[in-house]
Amino acid sequence: MAGSPRITSVVWGTMEIEGLEPGKDFKLWPGGGRPWDWRETGTQHSPGVQPADVEELLDNGATVIVLSRGMEERLEIDPATLAFLRDRDVTVHEAETTEAVRLYNELAGTEAVGGLFHSTC
Prior knowledge:
The protein is an alpha/beta fold. It is 25% helix and 28% strand.
C-alpha cells in the first residue's frame, strides 16, 4: 500500500498536496486524493461532513481519518458521520484545519490515514 500524500502548504483558500494540483478543499487517502466538491453530497457547514463524504476514504484503504473543521472551525461534522466511522472501528480526529494538516502529515508516515480538508472558514 502506498503512503498517504503529504500536504506541503495550507493558507486560506489554497492547499498544496504532493502529486496533486493546488486547490481549496481535498479528500486524501493512502495512495492518492482529489479535490473535495461539497456539492457531490450536498454538504454544507451545518450539519457538516456527511457519511457519504468519508466513504471514499474508507474505500481507498484509510483506517484512520482526520477531519478538518475549517480555519475558523465553522465546518461541523454530522453526528451520523461519527457513528458511521465508529461502527467501522475507524479512529477519527477532528481539528481546526492547520492542526488537522499537522496531525495528518504526522500520521501519514505510519498509518493508513485519510482526511477531508477545508481551507477556508
